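User: ok so my PI wants both of these folded by tonight, can you help

Assistant: No problem, let's get them done. Here's the first:
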Amino acid sequence: MKTTLSFKTGRPPSAITVALVLILGLLLQGRAGADEGMYPLSELSRLNLAAAGLKVTAAEIFDPEHGGLVDAIVKIGGCTGSFISPEGLVITNHHCAFGVIQLASTPGKDYISDGFLASGNSTELPAQGLTIRITESYTDVSAEVLGALSDTMKFGERSKAVSRRIKDIVAKAETDNPGKRAEVSEMFTGKSYMLFIYTFLRDVRAVYVPPRSVGEFGGEFDNWVWPRHTGDFAFMRAYVAPDGSPADYSPANVPYRPRKFLRVNPAGVEDGDKVFILGYPGRTFRHRSSHYLSYEEDVRMPYIAELYQWEISIMESAGSEDPSAAIRTAARIKSLSNVMKNYASKLEGMKRMDLVRARRDADGDLQKFIDDDPPLSAGYGGMLRDLEKIYIGMRETADYEMTLRYMRSSVTMLGAALTLLDAAEELRKPDLERESEFMERNLAATKTGLAQSVKNYVEGVDQVFLREFFLDASELGDGHRIAPIDTLIGTSGVESNTDEFIAEAYRTTRLGDSAFVMSLFGLSTDTLRSFDDPFLNLALRLRPLYRALSETQAARDGALTKLDGEYADARSRFLRKEFIPDANGTLRMTYGSIRGYSPADALHAAPITTIRGVIDKTTGREPFNTPARVIELYRKRDFGRLASRKLNTLTVCLLYNLDTTGGNSGSPLLNAAGELVGVNFDRAYGATINDFAWDESYSRSIAVDIRYVLWMTAKVAGAGYLTGEMGVGAIE
């Protein structure tokens, strides 16, 4: 897992910033027809939505006093969802519910393959660890956060000061808003911060998750690909205590009654129709330097893509021999596969567009612009050179740092042991001084995540992963050795020593028992040491290295936050162009049209696929094994009233030029009137590059058509009670 890819197996706001904020407001009003942009709530009132072809107003989208569409949009786990009934029914993606059904599955009760359908509220499936957030309000707290900084601080001190101030703000906000959840999000790097208040629901249950042959039709062959024929949708339901307050799971809880829920429009949309999305996109990186892009292209993404591809092959091999292992590794394989193919697409797109060279040339022009402006040069003259120095240093230590990081996240036994040791130290600190995952507000989620990781543990897979990381560590260069591993396996006879250690460690450890692991959570370091567990002992030896790595990362983050903020300032001034804040997991809006595109020379892709494509792809074998009921209804052309009037058949998926990224999975695709017409789940292959650079010519996103969702739910699954709950009426 080297960066050479030799896998053995296989400050306060500057005047510039203030001016840019003012310019942003003015320029947004002149770009109503633009398709690019994941617009924050704070910018909605400045958009000319009517000129963009939308019939909804900004106030109808977000109105804290009277309610708006935003009240129906939720963050569910790492995805987006939306309320579609007064009884807390939520629609999201199949792949967003995948972990829920995986945890509930056994070889004799395989919800992954067969799907899950509740016959009523009492039989809905508790979604362990899954939560729902609803945005209530936002407040600019930039001055408060940046007030924690001083010019004399070192970079590591800056990171810690910002983190502590944010914790203070969050704690006060949650005290002032009982029962709510508060989060502070960085909008412009090192420059602006927003405090968001959320309703936080902890009892979520699965209602209907279609079988894998529908929800994952096409599998990895079709992932990130157009045309698409995947029914990537699922229904969940949110519950609260009888008094309406958020509560943990209890049979006595009642369905949550949302302030707003979306109207489902069974007529759908057609080619050229105006649409928009509200959702919680994860991260984009469009305001970064060529040094960042070059590091991503040369080092980080290739390493992760190759690592994940190898880990997937190991897990698939284990699953082919053991049905239980197949179930326990299914969610992890799905997650790693998604990232792996995403990164492969990004790397291909970066090379095709020669993105690094283009940004490097642009950075050269930016440096000349800075040098030619004495006041600007005084502040930013050395900025790009300082960024270059940081990334050179990161390249030098990449093999060492990545080996440590991914060994922890890949090897379940080591990860569990390190989490127990972290808990032992962090839980003895005052709450606001702890690492975020061990603060009281996050502790339940941390414990649930630990328990689930051990529940999904497959010993043979874990052994292979640990062996590979030990052997990689043995090949690290001088000055970047992992001394505790060298001590264990020596420098000669490395493979046999590694095998001997692994055999004995896995024979004697008790950390594969989830109940035992949870009984250790919160015990002191000395008590944990007394168990003399091989993985706790290994973690005790490695932990100083992880602490040092954390300190290094904090100092690096402090420097990059300052420099990336300066870079965005200077670049905006140079280009005389307003920037929309990069996506950061907060609620955003993007708009555009149902529109095809030309993915290659002489090719044009239409923006709507149909049921015929499902049948044409069907082979009877995974991942193209269409359920017999689907084929039967297709042959009868029994589409009820859901067939497209223009295409005279049932439509399946939609393509559009909206600006989306990870986290938008499950986002509602809305027509011009704000009605639900689809559920976003993917991007076309070339559009993965839009995390770094967006262009209408290739940026296309994909949704499952609501007509297909309704047909699959009512006609195929026989769950007409759900379409009735949505207010759609009979499908016949």
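One down. Here's the second:
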Amino acid sequence: QQIFEEEANGILTNVRSMFGASVVFQHQLQPIYDIHLSEDFSANEGLTEPSKQSYSYILLGIALFILLIASFNFINLMIAQSMRRSKEIGIRKVIGAQRSELLKQFLGESFLLCSVAFVLALIIVQLIVPVFNDMVNKNLALSYLLDAKLITGYLLLFLLTGIISGFYPAFVLSGYSPLQTLQKRLQMTSNNYFQRTLVIMQFTLATMTTLAAIIVYQQFNYLTTMDWGLNSKNIIAIYKNELKQGEYEFMREELLKHGTIHTVTHSGWGGMSSWKVNGETKPFSQEKIDENYLSVLSIPLLSGRNFSPDFPSDSSNAVLVNESFVKAAGWSDPVGVEFTTDDGKKLRVIGVIGDYYIGSLVQKIEPYVFKMAPEKSYDRIYAKIEPGSESSSLKKIELAFKKEFPLLPFRYDFLEDKYLQSLANEARWKRVMVTGAGLTIFISCIGMFGLALLTAEKRFKEIGIRKVLGASVSSIVVTLSKDFLKIIVVAIIIAIPVAYYFGNQWLESYPEKVEMNAMMFVGAGSLILLLAFLTMSYQSVKAASMNPVNSLKLE
């Protein structure tokens, strides 16, 4: 720690000599456990940016939703199949089987199915880990799970899933009366509120996940299509640390010799500073630019004028400010205003430019001051090229760079790609959420299929009587489906306010965010209703198409 503090103090002294003694820095140690999920520090020196801790909770939530929905499905499907096992249960009870023995049998079946599912899950995970790694830009492996604590957690999860999935069906099946089952007089409760509650919970979770996927998808599209405040198309950024004015002039002359390169400018970060407004200290960032910067990047000048060679004093104390700076200062007419920074420098505002995103589309636009500083060093050159000439222009730029800096690596970015790279996390999570929503809907529809099967079993004779009395297949389908649709509507009504609350909390982390509107919720609800109806219709049509003789011949 002593060595670390000595190095940090040395760096701090150098930084203060560059940007002024008023700049305040603090150094501290970061726990290793916080490196991957803490957003307190930005990554540099080749490290990747940390992931948001909320994303881990989202993944955990999706996994929990899928597991709960699958458990609910198992319960419904087991109960739906119980009518076909009623004779077996009756015979076992007649020959002396105790209810506790039947409970053990059905729980054993549940654990056996869970064991097979657990093994299959491990195999499937091994197969899809490469796909998942590609989706979220990670390098996970199944070997990561070989940890004593995690293995204990898996076993507990396995036991809990087996008990949750198997106890209620075992309890119901083992409670059948042997006399009723053997006389085929077993009647299942017409209003099974427990099963309906499970289906409501299923589709509530599915609707919430679908709405979350829609919100993430819409936010990503909004960030990629909104006005960034500049035109980043057909611009190549070339990087060179400590770029001197003479080096830039040489590069500019070399680049403009080629017809595919239209204009060239340069810029560099000028450090942090601050000034006082009504006794309150206001921080701002500084950027070093030249008179071509605004035109190359198509940044609008809202008022005042740009830097110009006709005004030699522009390189001393004249500055441009962005809209955020004007708002922070509370100025109504900023052009011509002079202000003094905390390190004693007097600056005069000659123009106001529109806010634009510098480097990242997910960070708030801060107050910025733009100044000319030809005596200082820069770190970026921007070259605007002819559309469609990317390959040839890049070769010419590299030749010019190697001519001036033969020993340095040629580093560059297409500016538009650089901005889109700042949305890499959002793009990955869009894919994750859409995949998770698809899985939850699919598994929920399996549960709906089980409930439709259960209803068809309960109303087997009713369907036959309706057909004998002249009911059409379509009318029977409607009769069987309307109760399901009521359940889905209830689930959607429950899910919408919950999804709205958590969606709003997630969007608060973005400075620019999409507005949640009724169409999002109507679209998600309509999708869930449509898929559920299609799932129910299959079983309903199948039941309505049966020959009524088969259901009434024993009456």
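The mean pLDDT is 80. The longest helix spans residues 99-136. Good luck tonight!
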